[in-house]
Amino acid sequence: QVQLVESGGGLVQPGGSLRLSCAASGFILSNNPMAWYRQAPGKQREWVALISSLGATNYADSVKDRFTISRDNAKNTVFLQMNSLKSEDTAVYYCKAVRFESWGQGTQVTVSS
């Protein structure tokens, strides 16, 4: 059974940083591309970043050069380093194994002064 548990969210001031973690279980992380999504209040869930099984990365234009996705296959964990945060980054952040349907519960990120 695929399980994804996100953590690391919180309240941060504009310009600050956060590092999100996604603990994965129920599948072989190293064989799977992983992604981060986010959903802001009143908006649809949107894709943020992708990392392939080989470590290649891709980002939404809105977060490019500010966010970094990475993975530690030995720890079955995917990360999202978020720098230079803006108020428009406020959302619930979710990780997802691209090949599976399951979603985690998400972690809230609030960027506000």
Q: What is the SS-derived class? A: mainly beta
Strand content: over 45%
How far the N terminus sits from the C terminus, by CA atoms, comes to 40 Å
Query: Could you give a short account of the major beta sheet?
Result: 6 strands, mixed
Low-pLDDT stretches are none
Secondary structure tally, helices: 0
Strands, total number: 10
What is the succession of H and E elements? Answer: EEEEEEEEEE
**Helical residues, percent:** under 10%
Average pLDDT over all residues: 96
What is the C-alpha radius of gyration, as a whole number of Å? Answer: 13 Å
| Molecular shape | globular
Sequence of strands across the biggest β-sheet: 2-10-9-4-5-6
Description of the molecule:
By secondary structure, the protein is an all-beta fold. The chain has no helices and 10 strands. The strands form 2 sheets. It has a 6-stranded mixed β-sheet with strand order 2-10-9-4-5-6, with no helix packed on it. A hairpin with a 5-residue loop joins strand 5 and strand 6. The chain starts with a strand and ends with a strand.
